[in-house]
Design a protein that fits this description.
With about 190 residues, this protein is an alpha/beta fold. It is built from five helices and eleven strands; from the N terminus they run H-E-E-E-E-H-E-E-E-H-E-E-E-E-H-H.
Length: about 190
């Protein structure tokens, strides 16, 4: 494996951690979604979202379940780390993610507009391929993201589980945690 491959694997791998009730996952990818849209990860503006960082269940704004810890734009998508609340409802959703019953995420967004909320998008924010009908959202404002059992983008998924959940011995866990190529070991469990 050359260095480039290693870094790619490391970038794509993440974990679900029971210790701090977190899941690392994608909220958007540059894939065509169920609505024939492509949401360009590099076009995201998360400035307003990062002021609150509240995460919801299924876009129900009366159902906050978590908070965002960090957000990164990558070529593979918008990657985030989410920490779940200890409320009963949030715990149920967290458990469903840990059990891989729910594993998808969805974004609520708008595009930058010329004037007010109901005005036209700024030029270039949205382009449409007339031949395929596929719209590309080139510039967008992240309003929120949610755990969603049926997400518009089926590739906005939880990433790999924590390898510690497969290991029983504290000694082997310590060895693996210190191992330079732990992403390679993780592949054995995926």
């Amino acid at each position: 494996m050359d260095k480039l491959d290693f870094y790619l694997i490391e970038d794509l791998k993440a974990e679900k951690s029971k210790a701090d009730r977190t899941i690392t996952h994608f909220i958007s990818t540059p894939d065509i979604d169920r609505g024939k849209d492509i949401v360009n990860p590099r076009g995201m503006d998360s400035t307003d979202f990062e002021k609150s960082s509240t995460v919801f269940y299924n876009h129900n704004y009366d159902r906050p379940i978590a908070k965002n810890l960090w957000i990164k734009r990558t070529e593979q998508g918008v990657k985030v780390k989410t920490q779940f609340s200890e409320t009963a409802f949030a715990n149920d959703i967290y458990t469903l993610h840990m059990e891989d019953i729910i594993k998808t995420w969805s974004i609520g967004f708008d595009v930058p507009r010329k004037g007010g909320r109901w005005s036209d998008p700024i030029p270039g924010a949205i382009t449409t391929d007339e031949g395929t009908g596929i719209r590309t959202i080139n510039k967008w404002i992240l309003l929120e993201y949610s755990s969603a059992p049926l997400a518009m983008n089926p590739n906005a998924l939880d990433l790999a589980k924590n390898i510690k959940s497969y290991m029983k011995s504290e000694e082997i866990i310590n060895v693996i945690e210190g191992f330079e190529y732990k992403a390679d070991i993780q592949n054995l469990f995926d």
